[in-house]
Amino acid sequence: MTLDLSLLPDGGLHWLIGDGQHAGIVLSSRIRLARNIAGFAFPVRAREGERLRVMHQVRAVAARLKGLEGAAFVRVDECSPVERQVLHERHLVSRELAGLDRGSVGPTGSAVLVTGDAGVMVNEEDHLRVQVFRSGFDVQGALRQAEALDAELGAALPFAAHTEFGYLTACPTNTGTGLRASVLIHLPGLVLTQEIGKVLQGLQHMGLTYRGLYGEGSDVLGNLFQISNQTTLGRSEEDLTEQLERVVRRVIEREEEARAILARDAGYIIEDKLWRAYGTLRHARNLPADEAMNLLSGLRLAAGLNLVTGLSVYTLNKLLIFSQSAHLSHSAGRVLTEGEANLARARYVRQILANEARLPE
Ligand SMILES: Nc1ncnc2c1ncn2[C@@H]1O[C@H](COP(=O)(O)OP(=O)(O)OP(=O)(O)O)[C@@H](O)[C@H]1O
């Protein structure tokens, strides 16, 4: 394996720290801006040589930018399948950029620049996908940082733009600002009270959409939803992010209300369910990925309700990422079978909980 994760500043995962607003419920806020370089075909249409030229040009420019100081440049097309999956499990590259559906060879010229909280995917659907991640609920902070980085990049690269439409992108739904603002949010209260359907339906009426844990086309796992704007054309960045913030603030309130109702009306049933989740995570010897996600969701809720103490949001976030299969393979130094990964996952989770969780008297 050639990907040295210690070279990624903060592992590219500064947001795991969990010091943002509402970080127990909103894991992260992300802004991404889609940009293309004038004079080159969009990545899906470009020949291999053209994709490589784009990659080299972005790399050369990035080395001079303040917003990407200290960034690691990772050639995704030279990574092994497990390494590409690791980057994906860290949310640093999309499924498409990682080429996870392509087998052993990554897409030529695909790369990613990684700092602790910002980065650029190169040759995804668009030439550049600028992205900034923040801990907790901080869409405006992420927007400011993304705009500063975008301004630096735009001064060095001729971005394809139209005076009337705005930034030109491979998919027309991104044309305009090229912006997608999203939060990754944990909503077990709304799921358990069966209110979630109404909440998700409501999003669609307000120009928002929801996706699973790994974005487009991915499943919702562990009650984690990615909520983002659906369209961008004809709207300003401020408009889009303010709308997302307004709605997410309301979703957080509803989640808190749902948790209070659960504690009041079904206290011992919920307590029992969460203690069972804790007990399994603490003692299981064999932990399949889907089961782990559900139990970790229970553990996060248990910490939110102060049943289990001593577990920081950082630890809860870390458990979520580092218990994924490719991470377990990467730390074992070889590709684990599914069965081996289930054993390694159980061992990893047990260790973390033995060291960090404290139980009330
Ligand atoms: N708030 C967030 N926190 C952590 N990761 C996120 C967040 N939002 C998106 N991601 C990650 O970014 C990657 C891409 O997300 P997604 O599939 O939604 O596409 P996109 O690049 O934002 O937009 P498009 O659908 O236009 O290609 C996924 O791996 C997803 O997990």
From TrEMBL:
GO biological process per UniProt: phosphocreatine biosynthetic process
Superkingdom per UniProt: Bacteria
Molecular functions (GO terms): ATP binding; creatine kinase activity
Cited Gene3D superfamilies: Glutamine synthetase/guanido kinase, catalytic domain
Residue intervals of the Phosphagen kinase C-terminal domain: 25-258
CDD domains associated with the record: bacterial_phosphagen_kinase
InterPro entries, A to Z: Arg_Kinase, ATP-guanido_PTrfase, ATP-guanido_PTrfase_cat, Gln_synth/guanido_kin_cat_dom
Entry binding sites for ATP: 28-32, 91, 129, 180-184, 211-216
GO cellular component, one term: extracellular space
Tagged with keyword Nucleotide-binding: yes
Keywords, comma-separated and alphabetical: ATP-binding, Kinase, Nucleotide-binding, Transferase
Assigned protein family: Belongs to the ATP:guanido phosphotransferase family.
Name the UniProt record assigns to this protein: Protein arginine kinase
